[in-house]
């Protein structure tokens, strides 16, 4: 599948509404399944987004958010923590209307190339029940190396 030219740019404060919408598309749907009212879902989305942001800041203080654009429109975001010992994919979210277009694969190709060039491993954690994501990561050479609180730890060694 051919992917339109993607542009990657550093996330900025002005991207907060888009990041919230991405989070709502993913988590809001899960919360709605619990039979909550739309107002309750909105409040829960805000609460969970703040909690996730605080956790990322605490665990990955040097992580950077990159907004993914297609034809000038934001279509996703990726959070990556780079260090002297590895590259950690903290989060990758693609907007609901742009999933299955190869955008996630394009991001993973970029990160894999960076891993290979820097000779650093690429790691991530993924919800153990997210079989679609796990399959995608495995297709890029990731292997499951552990489990923690319902999440699989995955690692991809750099290619020689």
Characterization of this structure:
The chain is of the alpha+beta class and 160 residues long. It has a single domain (6-156), classed as Gcn5-related N-acetyltransferase (GNAT) (Aminopeptidase), CATH 3.40.630.30. The protein contains four helices and seven strands; from the N terminus they run E-H-H-E-E-E-H-E-H-E-E. It has helices at residues 16-32, 38-59, 103-118, 131-139; strands at residues 6-10, 64-70, 73-82, 87-94, 122-127, 143-148, 151-156. Strands 1-2-3-4-5-7-6 form a seven-stranded mixed β-sheet, sandwiched between helices. A hairpin with a 2-residue loop joins strand 2 (64-70) and strand 3. Helix 1 (16-32) crosses helix 2. It is globular, with a radius of gyration of 16 Å.
């Amino acid at each position: 599948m051919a992917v339109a030219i993607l542009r990657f740019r550093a996330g900025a404060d002005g991207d907060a509404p888009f990041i919230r919408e991405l989070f709502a598309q993913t988590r809001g749907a899960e919360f709605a399944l619990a039979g909550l009212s739309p107002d309750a879902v909105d409040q829960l989305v805000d609460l969970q987004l703040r909690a996730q942001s605080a956790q990322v800041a605490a665990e990955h203080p040097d992580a950077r958010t990159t907004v993914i654009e297609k034809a000038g429109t934001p279509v996703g975001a990726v959070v990556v923590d780079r260090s002297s010992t590895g590259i950690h994919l903290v989060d990758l979210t693609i907007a609901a209307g742009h999933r299955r277009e190869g955008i996630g694969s394009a991001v993973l190709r970029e990160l894999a190339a960076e891993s290979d060039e820097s000779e650093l491993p690429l790691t991530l954690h993924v919800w153990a029940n997210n079989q679609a994501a796990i399959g995608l990561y495995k297709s890029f050479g990731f292997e499951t190396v552990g489990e923690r609180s319902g999440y699989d730890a995955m690692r991809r060694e750099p290619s020689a």
